[in-house]
Write a structure and sequence with these properties.
177 residues; mainly alpha; 2 domains; two-stranded antiparallel sheet; 2 strands; globular
């Protein structure tokens, strides 16, 4: 007779912390590109999101009487990074914190914490935030208007990148939206 056990069924022996750090390192190139393209706006969104998620994770664990050592496992930081990389760089700091609250408190801790959540917390928060702000409106071909303009200006301001600008325009993106 076989016993019914919950996932994961195969274990690699890696700790949660090492797995989270590996994923964070895998997202480092995308984070660097975000900071390169959007400057301090990218830094602000990424920093606010990671800090907000870690702070709210600590608060939620404290409120539930659990050990706050779980904040150091990297899952809240990864949730913050995922959330930040899905948000436009022009998102207000308070909207980022609302997203952090939704990700940690509503999509993660309500279901029991790491490994028990029904949905990816960062993406659940992004879906909830989608209609909440006018900053998410005005999408042209799947890309927010301001970043497209900013990316094109960045390409114009750097020699050797005219090829990328030409390809962007040929792809059907409006040159000034």
């Amino acid at each position: 007779m076989s016993a019914l056990i919950s996932s994961p069924h195969l274990h690699s022996g890696d700790s949660v912390r090492s797995t989270m750090i590996t994923v964070i390192l895998a997202l480092a190139p995308a984070s660097f590109v975000s900071v390169y393209l959007f400057g301090w706006l990218g830094v602000l969104v990424i920093g606010t999101s990671i800090g907000g998620c870690m702070g709210l994770e600590w608060i939620s664990l404290r409120m539930m009487g659990r050990s706050t050592a779980a904040v150091g496992d990297g899952s809240a930081a990864l949730t913050g990074l995922f959330l930040a990389l899905t948000l436009p760089p022009t998102t207000s700091w308070w909207m980022v914190l609302i997203g952090c609250f939704m990700a940690i408190m509503l999509a993660k801790q309500v279901y029991g914490g790491l490994g028990f959540n029904l949905f990816n917390p960062a993406l659940a928060a992004r879906v909830i935030l989608q209609p909440a702000s006018h900053r998410f409106e005005g999408v042209v071909n799947g890309l927010p208007k301001i970043p497209v303009r900013y990316i094109q200006l960045q390409m114009l301001n750097h020699p050797g990148r005219s090829y990328l600008l030409k390809r962007t325009v040929q792809a059907g993106l409006p040159p000034d939206h």
